Amino acid sequence: MSRLFSAAPFIVSLVLGILAVIFAFRLSLADDLWPVEPTGPLSFTLIGSFFASACVATLWCLYERQVGGLVGLALDYLTIFGVIAVFSFDLADGDNIITVVAAALAIGGVLFATTMLPALRSPITDLRPQPRLARLSFIGSVFWLVGVGVALLLKAKVLPWPLSDELSVISGSLFLGAAAYLGYSLLRPSWANTGGQLAAFLAYDVVLIYPLFTRLPDVDSEFRINLFVYSAVIAYSALLATYYLLVDPRTRVFGPVSPVAALPSSPPFAGGQDSSG
Q1: CA-based angle 222:226:229, to the nearest 5?
Q2: Which of 71, 98, 196, 199 is found 20 to 30 A from 133 (Cα to Cα)?
């Protein structure tokens, strides 16, 4: 991997990590950096969770030296950064801060998109197959993410708090970007593509799970079902990611077996391996 090739996603991940902290903890910069007025108590938390998941997924690919895994992330970034950058430029109307943020998002998306072509040519070196339970969960997640994303683009009330029309469109692009990322993993179902997505799940869940659960007793009746469903999805994905990243000896981050040794797998792993690399 060339220095330029590895530097671009590392810089992007650093920026994403900083933004995740700013929005997850709603620091004073959050109100200045975000192009639309937040609505509902968890709007900034949701934005922070997506930044955190994108940061962790990128760092995972770099840490594991799985260049091929960057393709799915590039699809994610192209979907999210592109929509938000265009939307931000439209809303800037002379506001220098918002214009700078929009430009940064556009440049970040372009920089990461440049990794797509070399990453597509890069072989998958971690040949452990995608766990069967993770694959089934990803299939369900893609349908859920697309459904929620499209509903948000149509400004439907599907999240457990109210959203402005502008924020609903932006949030919809985030969910659709995540669906594109997961969908790529289903096309190249090796652990090289799966581990980063589970790590992204866990980062997203860690940011959201406590704020969501603390709202359960006091949520308005019109959002109660949405909150229960969303909390259940978050809890399940957190358990799934924790099991495969920290518990299962074949895939855990600390001390996993070698990719070659892991090939003769048994349930919950699916048979076969990624042959597209």
Answers
A1: 150
A2: 71
